[in-house]
Amino acid sequence: MFETWLDDVKAECEAMGHRVVSVCLRDKKITYCTGCWACWVKTPGQCIASDDSREICSTFINSDFVLFASPVLMGFTSAILKRLQDKLIPLVHPYIEIVQGECHHKKRYDSYPGMGLVLDMQESDMEDRQIITRIYERLAKNLRTRLHFSKTADDPAEEVAHAIDCV
User: Other C-beta atoms within 10 Å of 84: how many?
Assistant: First the structure.
């Protein structure tokens, strides 16, 4: 079971001396991003919606590393993880600058956490994994950080914890 495997990753990371904060998105109220831009204009750096994304964004930006974990359903991550991914937009400014020949949002913060991705592939294939990984690489690039790895729940929990420890 994926949740048990994630608990094993957490235990391994804690055994290595890391402080781990787990956020179970199923237990959170995360509304859809409506593209209203209020997070840039009316409430800079914070979603105008009164939901748990505010707390999650704060936890995100104050972390050294964030591990996104999701089952792959119909070729992509869970809907709630995608919703959260959209709600990270307040972490950058609305202004655009050229970075390595591409347009990206200006940074709102001096630093952003490193990122990792773990997928429970279930009935999915390598093409799904490659597409999802590429999307998270692009998210990391826009947040001026790096996706350090993409792994599956078939990898040993110790291997994932070691990859986090090496960041």
Answer: 23
How far is it between the farthest Cα atoms of the chain? 45
* pLDDT over threshold 90, residue 100: no
Handedness of CA 20, 87, 118, 159 (dihedral sign): negative
* pLDDT level of residue 122 (50, 70, 90 thresholds): confident
State phi, psi for 60 to the nearest 5 degrees.
Answer: -60, -55
- Residue carrying the six token digits 């831009």: 37
pLDDT in tens, 24-36: 999 999 999 999 9
Torsion of CA 144, 117, 30, 61, to 10 degrees: -40
The enclosing domain of 126 has a CATH number of 3.40.50.360
Note down the domain range covering 66: 2-165
Count up the domains in the chain and report the number: 1
pTM of the model: 0.94
Which of these, 8, 46, 11, 6, lies nearest to 24 by C-alpha position? 6
Can you say whether the dihedral through the CA atoms of 22, 64, 30, 83 is positive or negative?
negative
- Mean pLDDT calculated for residue range 51-55: 96
